[in-house]
Amino acid sequence: MTTPTDETSPSLEEGNNNNAIRINVNVNQRLFILPAFGAFTGLSLGLLRGSRDAKLQFLAENVHKQPRTVRGWYFYNKTKNYRMMLGGLRTGGRDAVKIGALGFVWAGIEEAVLHTSSELEPGKEFIAGLGTATAFSVVTRLGAKAGRRAVILGGAIGGMMSLLRIAQNRLEESVKKAKKEGGGGRGAEEIGGAP
């Protein structure tokens, strides 16, 4: 049996052709981080709240039929604990989806603002807060008064986040300026830069 020559056999390097078409989708990390953090927060809060509510419900339903033996108390507490776990997981999953979706809406509105106009970039958090609060009010069918409060609260939270981001950018600029100047007055170490 003869081996093919180098001219007729495709080399392994041809599979890594630089002329191949690549499809790249650039997605901002905030679209992943914010909903994931919201889902984790919702899961944590839902586990605590749901297990507590399930425990209280179990105790209220079984207050008239308390066990009389050690074995009865064992199964009573075992059943109560299983109900607490189930209630916590149900509520935790529900809250994780809700808060994760709110985080996704917030991040999506921010990205839409950035892609729409770069002039709106300083107020992207404020716009995202207003949009998320409005979407929440519509989905949960809040009344006019409660909806107005939700939108005001969303705008306030978004505005505070915008102000914090602006302050962070100014602080970073002052640290860079102090490092570049080489320490006239306060050094970069005093401002918060690395030594």
Topology (SSEs and partners):
Blueprint: H1 30-61, H2 70-116, H3 124-139, H4 144-181, H5 188-191
Helix pairs in contact: 1-2, 2-3, 3-4
Question: Could you explain the architecture of this structure?
Answer:
The protein has 195 residues and is an all-alpha fold. It has two domains: 28-116; 117-177. It is 70% helix and 0% strand.
Quick take:
The chain folds into 2 domains: 28-116; 117-177. 70% of the residues lie in helices and 0% in strands.
What's the helical proportion of residues? over 70%
Count of extended strands: 0
Q: What structural class do the secondary elements suggest?
A: mainly alpha
Uncertain residue segments: none
For the termini, the CA-CA separation is: 69 Å
What does the main sheet amount to? Answer: none
Q: Report strand %.
A: under 5%
Count of alpha and pi helical runs:
5
